[in-house]
Write a structure and sequence with these properties.
This protein has 541 residues and is α/β, with parallel strands linked by helices. It is built from 14 helices and 18 strands. The protein folds into 3 domains: 186 residues, Rossmann fold, CATH 3.40.50; 189 residues, HUPs (Rossmann fold, 3-Layer(aba) Sandwich); 96 residues, GMP Synthetase, Chain A, domain 3 (2-Layer Sandwich). The strands form 3 sheets. Strands 2-1-3-4-9-8-7-5-6 form a 9-stranded mixed sheet, sandwiched between helices.
Length: 541
C-alpha cells in the first residue's frame, strides 16, 4: 500500500496547502489537529474517534515520533495512549522526551500516563492488585480536566503498574480505592495523566473528559465537520485527477458506494464505475446498484454480467479455500478486462478506511505492528497499473456512513450489512450450483426481511442464511421429505474480530423458520447458529 504522511486528510491527496482547511472558510488558520501517540492499546483507535466526536480532527501516529516531526505537524494537543507493555520492560516503547518541552498540552492514558510520569520524575511500580474493569473513582479537584464531571464516577481500569510516588511537581486530581493517583496534573505545565480509559463507553463522562482536554486545555474550537471534509476532498480530487478518468469498482457495499458518490460529486462524467455481477450476490443487489449509480447519480456504469464465467469455474469445487481462490482470480480477470476497455483511465479509486490504514501499518508515522490480517478476496491487487485514489483513508466506518448520508446515498446502502467478496459462495457449503444458490438467496432474503420487520436490522451487525451440505428427513402433508437444511446467523460485534450471536426472540425465529420452510422449495429444516467468534468465525467457510 502507498505510504502517506500523517497530515490532515486533504493533503493525502497531494492537493496542496490550500486544501488543508477544516475551519469552514478561514483558510489562513492552521487546522485543529490532535495526535494520538499509539503505544499499542486495543482502544487507541477509540481515542481518535472520541476526539473526532468533538469535531476535532485526530490521527494515530507512532509512539516514538520525534519532537521535531510533531512540531512541524503543529497539533493542538498530544494524547499518549495505553499499551500492553510495562514502562520498565526492556525495549518498552517510550515517547521522545523532548515532546514535553514543545509547549503542546499532553494527556497520557494508562500506559501513556505512566510513560509521562516516569519521564518527568515520578515513581511507577506494580500496584498491590491488577485492576481490570469498572471501578469507582473520586474526583479530588473540581474543574479543569474534570469540569462538568460528577464528584464520584465509574471508570474503566485495565492496568498492573501505577504511579506511586508523586513528586512535588504533580497534583493528584482523582483517586480510586487501589490507585491514589488515578488522575494527575503537572503543576506548571499543561500535562495530564489518567490511569483509567476515558475513551471506552464504560467510563462515565469519558467523552466530557476528552472534550475538556481538547477544547478547554488544548483550545480547539471544534470546527472539523463532514461538510468541510467533502469540500476539501472535492477540491483535492479535482486538482489531482485533472481531465483524466477514474475507475471505481462498486461492490454494492457502503465503502465503495461512498467513494463513488464522492468522486461523482468531484469529477462527474470523468468517473467510470464497474460492477461485476458474479452470480453470487444477494437478492436485489445488482438492481440496487443500478438504481443508485445508473439512474440516480447517472454515472458511466459498467455492469459486467460474469455469472456464467464464475459458476462454470466453481463447478465441482467444495473446498472453501479453493472456492475463495477461484473467485478472487476470476474477479481480477473480469475487472481488469473491463477496466482496460475504458479509455484514458489513469486512476483507480478504492474504499480503504482508516482502521485498514492503521492496522496495516501503512502510514509512515502510524504504528508499525500489523494487528489484523485482512481477507482480500473480492478485492483488487495493488498493482493493476493505475494510480490509487483512496479518499476515505482518514475516516472511520461511522464517519463514512455520515458522509454517505450527506452525499445523498439511500439508507439501505449506507446501513447495508457487510457482505464478503466471495459472496454467497462461502454461505453455500459444498458445491456452488445455480439451483442451490437460488435456494440460499430466497432463504437469505427472508431472514433479512424478517429482521427489518422486527426493527432489528441495524441492531445486529450482520445476519444471513447458510445452506448446509446435508439433507434431513421431514414430513410435509402426507409425504416424507429428504431436503436441505438452512442455518440462520445473526451477530453483534464492534469490530468483526470478535462477535457474539444475537439472541433473536422466539417470535422472530419462528417467523423466519415458518416462512423459509413454507416458501423455499427444497428446505425442510431451519436451525439457528448460537456460536460466538471465537471459536467460530462469522462466515461458515
Ligand atoms: P469471519 O468469517 O472471518 O469474517 O469471522 C469477518 C468479517 O469479514 C467478512 N469476510 C470477508 N470480507 N472478503 C471480504 O471482503 C472475504 O473474503 C471475506 N471473508 C469474510 C465477513 O463477512 C465478516 O464481516
Amino acid at each position: 500500500m502507498a505510504q502517506h504522511p500523517v497530515v490532515p486528510m486533504a493533503t493525502t491527496l497531494d492537493a496542496g496547502p490550500a486544501a488543508v482547511d477544516f475551519s469552514g472558510g478561514a483558510r489562513s488558520e492552521a487546522p485543529e489537529l490532535v495526535l494520538v501517540l499509539d503505544f499499542g492499546s486495543q482502544t487507541a483507535q477509540l481515542i481518535a474517534r472520541r476526539v473526532r466526536e468533538q469535531n476535532v480532527f485526530c490521527q494515530l501516529v507512532r509512539p516514538d515520533l520525534s519532537a521535531e516531526r510533531i512540531r512541524k505537524l503543529a497539533p493542538r494537543g498530544l494524547i499518549l495512549s495505553g499499551g500492553p507493555a510495562s514502562v520498565y520492560d526492556k525495549g518498552a516503547p517510550l515517547p521522545d522526551p523532548r515532546i514535553f518541552d514543545l509547549g503542546i498540552p499532553i494527556l497520557g492514558i494508562c500506559y501513556g500516563m505512566q510513560a509521562i510520569c516516569r519521564a518527568l520524575g515520578n515513581e511507577v511500580s506494580p500496584g498491590a492488585h491488577r485492576e481490570f474493569g469498572r471501578t469507582s473513582c473520586r474526583v479530588l479537584a473540581d474543574g479543569d480536566l474534570f469540569d462538568r464531571v460528577p464528584g464520584e464516577l465509574t471508570v474503566w481500569m485495565s492496568h498492573g503498574d501505577q504511579v506511586k510516588g508523586l513528586s512535588e511537581q504533580w497534583v493528584p486530581l482523582a483517586s480510586t480505592g487501589d490507585c491514589p493517583a488515578a488522575a494527575v496534573k503537572h503543576r506548571t505545565r499543561a500535562i495530564y495523566g489518567l490511569q483509567f480509559h476515558p475513551e471506552v463507553t464504560h467510563t462515565q463522562c469519558g467523552g466530557t473528559l476528552l472534550g475538556n482536554f481538547v477544547k478547554s486545555i488544548c483550545g480547539c474550537r471544534g470546527t472539523w465537520k463532514m461538510s468541510s471534509f467533502i469540500e476539501q476532498q472535492v477540491t483535492g480530487l479535482r486538482e489531482r485527477v485533472g481531465n483524466k478518468r477514474v475507475i471505481c469498482g462498486l461492490s454494492g457495499g457502503v465503502d465503495s458506494s461512498v467513494v463513488a458518490a464522492l468522486l461523482f460529486k468531484a469529477i462527474g462524467k470523468q468517473l467510470s464505475c464497474i460492477f461485476v455481477n458474479n452470480g453470487l450476490l444477494r437478492a436485489g443487489e445488482a438492481e440496487s446498484v443500478r438504481r443508485s449509480f445508473g439512474d440516480h447519480f447517472r454515472t458511466d456504469l459498467h455492469v459486467v454480467d460474469a455469472r456464467e464465467q464464475f459458476l462454470s469455474e466453481l463447478k465441482g469445487i467444495v473446498d472453501p479455500q479453493q472456492k475463495r481462490k477461484t473467485i478472487g482470480r476470476v474477479f481480477i480477470e473480469v475487472f481488469q478486462a473491463e477496466a482496460r476497455s475504458i479509455p484514458d483511465a489513469e486512476f483507480l479509486a478504492q474504499g480503504t478506511l482508516y482502521p485498514d490504514v492503521i492496522e496495516s501499518g501503512a502510514s509512515v508515522d502510524g504504528p508499525a505492528a500489523t494487528i489484523k490480517h485482512h481477507h482480500n478476496v473480492g478485492g483488487l491487487p495493488d498493482k493493476l497499473g493505475f494510480q490509487l485514489i483512496e479518499p476515505l483513508r482518514d475516516l472511520f466506518k461511522d464517519e463514512v456512513r455520515t458522509l454517505g448520508h450527506e452525499l445523498g446515498l439511500p439508507d439501505e446502502m449506507i446501513w447495508r450489512h457487510p457482505f464478503p467478496g466471495p459472496g454467497l459462495a462461502v454461505r453455500c457449503l459444498g458445491e456452488v450450483r445455480p439451483e442451490r444458490l437460488e435456494v440460499l438467496r430466497k432463504a437469505d432474503e427472508i431472514v433479512l426481511d424478517e429482521l427489518r420487520k422486527a426493527g432489528l436490522y441495524r441492531k445486529v451487525q450482520q445476519a444471513f442464511a447458510v445452506l448446509l451440505p446435508v439433507q434431513s428427513v421431514g414430513v410435509m402433508g402426507d409425504f416424507r421429505t429428504y431436503d436441505d437444511v438452512v442455518a440462520v446467523r445473526a451477530i453483534q460485534t464492534e469490530d468483526f474480530m470478535t462477535a457474539d450471536w444475537y439472541p433473536l426472540s422466539c417470535d422472530v425465529l419462528q417467523s423466519i423458520s415458518t416462512r423459509i420452510t413454507n416458501s423455499v422449495r427444497g428446505v425442510n429444516r431451519v436451525v439457528y447458529d448460537i456460536s460466538s467468534k471465537p471459536p467460530s468465525t462469522i462466515e461458515w467457510e
